[in-house]
Amino acid sequence: MKEFMIVLASGAEHLEKKFRNQGIPVYCLAPNFDGKRFFPNSDLYVKIPKVEELANKRVVVLQNCTGSSPAEREYFSTADRLEELILILDMLKHPLKVVKIGHKEYNTTPISPPSRIEVVLTFQPFALQDKAFSTGEAVSSRSAMRNIASRCDKLWVVEPVVNKDIDWVADLAKQGKYEVISFTSDIVQKAAETFGFEEHILRAPDEGAQKRFGVPGLSKRRSDSFTIEMQGDLDVKGKNVIVIDDLTKSGTTLLRAGKILMEQGAAEVGFVVLHVTPIKQEGEELLADLVEKSEKRVMTSNTVYSKTFCKDNPELVYNVVDCIIENL
């Protein structure tokens, strides 16, 4: 394994202990003099203590670029996470040793930067805005990902929601700037063992998951962010079924799919979702409802922090740290 140092941005700090347990040097961001990451006017504060220790080293910065769980101490939007990452990358490229010599007077001396700077996104920014869906829309994910890639030597994405065949993703990969870290097969295996399924089949809750995972599934129509209609007739009678999806905010799609499959004769239904992204209002309550209604037959990862899974139900969480280390 190649040697590297880890810098954890705010969205990945919950992974600190797991990296340290693997013997990886970890650097976390320091708060400002108010003990916070934001100033009263909402400006972000970024500081890496002992940054001089990163000089001439291979440094990997981890960030989860989605909004905070309601359980986190300070709220970060997707834009906040992205801006924090950009500030970290800029500082690492131009680190300074600062010595105070008087009132608002400082001497600064350049520090040697890391020899290589890479980024691991445990969840990519604006993941559902990967193309224009109507005239005049910004392709927010493309803009953000190109911005990050231009500021580092390599960009790794953990189980990206954005399809790899999209032109701008393919362009980044062709430049050698983009690589995927996948754990799908591992999380499915852990889920089956946890659920007690000696045998199982995989099914998808919608067309997107069918395409991504290459398995049969239901069809879904969404009228807004929270209202869906689902249909489809699948051969599941007498079988244990794992419904697999890449992302959920509330679990609504998963639970609806599970109900339909049970009505079609499935023996038992469990769920695997690669990322959970708690919404700002009632996000943890909705995820707790998913755990309860699924009778704890739901497995996710710790790419994004959620109290419901990472703290309250750690046995239902696949740890992505080992997978990240193995790929790096």
Provide keyphrases for this structure.
328 residues, six-stranded parallel sheet, 2 domains, Rossmann fold, alpha/beta
Walk me through what this model shows.
This protein has 328 residues and is α/β, with parallel strands linked by helices. The protein folds into 2 domains: 5-181, Rossmann fold (3-Layer(aba) Sandwich); 184-318, Rossmann fold (3-Layer(aba) Sandwich), CATH 3.40.50. Helices cover 29% and strands 24% of the residues. It has helices spanning 16-21, 78-93, 140-149, 167-174, 184-195, 207-213, 252-263, 283-293, 307-311, 321-327, and strands at residues 5-8, 26-28, 58-64, 96-102, 105-110, 116-123, 154-158, 178-181, 201-203, 219-222, 228-231, 240-248, 268-276, 298-301, 317-318. Strands 2-1-3-6-7-8 form a 6-stranded parallel sheet. It has a 5-stranded parallel sheet with strand order 9-12-13-14-15, with helices on both faces. Strands 4-5 form a two-stranded antiparallel ribbon. A hairpin with a 2-residue loop joins β4 and β5. It is elongated and about 75 Å long. The model has no long low-confidence stretch (mean pLDDT 92).
Would you spell out the secondary-structure blueprint of this structure?
Layout: E1 5-8, H1 16-21, E2 26-28, E3 58-64, H2 78-93, E4 96-102, E5 105-110, E6 116-123, H3 140-149, E7 154-158, H4 167-174, E8 178-181, H5 184-195, E9 201-203, H6 207-213, E10 219-222, E11 228-231, E12 240-248, H7 252-263, E13 268-276, H8 283-293, E14 298-301, H9 307-311, E15 317-318, H10 321-327
